[in-house]
Design goal:
This is Trypsin. The protein is α+β, with helices and mostly antiparallel strands. It contains 6 helices and 21 strands. It has a single domain, classed as Thrombin, subunit H. A hairpin with a 5-residue loop joins strand 7 and strand 8. 54% of the residues are buried.
């Protein structure tokens, strides 16, 4: 995760599906030897997650963010995920769990120590039914994983049920760490820690692409592609108007949304390994899971269509100021998530039916006795 001081770097664009797919895969499938974090403007160790850490007065608020070590036919990769309330299921990105063999989940990584571990088998993976493996940005890049046994000493998250465009969010994950103003890619030297930062949801992908289709000749908008759900878009700001990519695109396309120049030293963006990680909005009393980190794109890709210049502050750093990121909105999948997490377990159902049968037998005997 890259954390930034004050940096705007926002440029939204019509993202070529092939490019967005590659960006998402790159953001998720990180070799196990390279893992960790976020990109900001100050030292990554200043943004480490520590078990029990308080956010808005809630102790252990980010303890439910887990590190996923995923074994696929191609090897081992890393993603992140968020524990749901109840402790049995986690939310992550669908592209993280495609073609998997097994998943090991760790909570509370801090300097190498781990507070909780769980396993997940392929039978415990639920990919959104509209996910095709390559329709990144469609709103379908979301999955649930069922832990082999529930986590009871870490509080899970409730879902945001509202469209949170325009709201500030807290992002957390186990991707690589680095600096938004750096000329080099994030490294994995801080990989034994989770990281966090803040950003703002500027616009959703459907709105962005509808507007762009009218403003950019030949842009191409496919309404059916965005039917599965909602994807939020954010840019990585450094406090300057020049790198407020989404704001500049809004100015060039009719002001269908607004985008500021960032949150100053708190500004951040997810990196390699943060895919599937949680993005949380504050309800006034709890952190609600609002988004699932999905993809990143260099800001300069957006500049071409909108005839903008200087969108990406560091072209040699794919997680620098001016770059863009996307995340799947949970509010558009609440019904699907609840349809899975609310289903009674097989053994529970068996006990229930056994209990009903027993009650029926007792009732018949009473009637016979009478």
């Amino acid at each position: 995760m890259k954390l930034g001081s004050y940096n705007p770097t926002l440029t939204i664009m019509k993202i070529p599906f092939a490019m967005i797919k590659l960006a998402a895969v790159a953001a998720a499938l990180v070799a196990a030897s390279t893992a960790q974090a976020t990109t900001n403007s100050s030292a990554p160790q200043d943004w480490r997650l520590v078990p029990g850490q308080s956010f808005n007065g809630v102790a252990g608020a980010m303890d439910g963010v887990g590190r996923l070590s995923i074994t696929t036919s191609g090897g081992v990769s890393l993603c992140s995920g968020s524990l749901l309330s109840g402790g049995q299921y986690m939310v992550t990105s669908a592209h993280c769990v495609t073609d998997l063999k097994s998943v090991n989940v760790s909570f509370g990584w801090a300097g190498g120590s781990v507070s909780e571990t769980r396993k997940v088998l392929p039978s415990g993976v639920y990919v959104h039914p509209k996910w095709t493996g390559d329709n990144v940005d469609s709103g379908a890049d979301i999955a649930l994983i069922k832990l082999d046994h529930a986590v009871t000493d870490i509080k899970g998250y409730n879902l945001s049920t509202s469209n949170d465009v325009g709201k500030e969010f807290l992002l957390a994950g186990y991707g690589r760490s680095g600096l938004g103003g750096s000329t080099t890619q994030p490294d994995s030297g801080d990989r034994l820690w989770g990281h966090y930062g803040y950003n703002t949801y500027d616009v959703d992908s459907k709105t962005f692409n509808q507007v762009s289709d009218k403003a950019v000749p030949g842009f191409g908008y496919d309404a059916a592609f965005y039917a599965p759900g909602v994807t939020y878009r954010s840019d990585y700001d450094d406090g300057t108007a020049a790198h407020n990519t989404l704001g500049r695109i809004a100015d060039a396309t009719g002001h269908a949304w607004t985008s500021g120049t960032g949150l100053g030293a708190r500004e951040a963006m997810g990196t390699d390994g943060d895919s599937g990680g949680g993005e949380f909005v504050w309800s006034g009393k709890e952190w609600l899971l609002s988004g699932v980190h999905e993809w990143n794109l260099p800001g300069d890709f957006s500049c071409v269509d909108y005839k903008l210049t200087g969108c990406d502050a560091r072209p040699t750093n794919d997680f620098s100021y001016g770059d863009l990121s996307g995340s799947t909105a949970t509010f558009s999948h609440v019904a699907w998530i609840r349809s899975i997490t609310a289903v009674p377990e097989a053994d529970t159902s068996a006990l229930m039916f056994a209990g009903l049968a027993l009650m029926g037998t007792i009732a018949r005997r009473r009637r016979q006795a009478a």
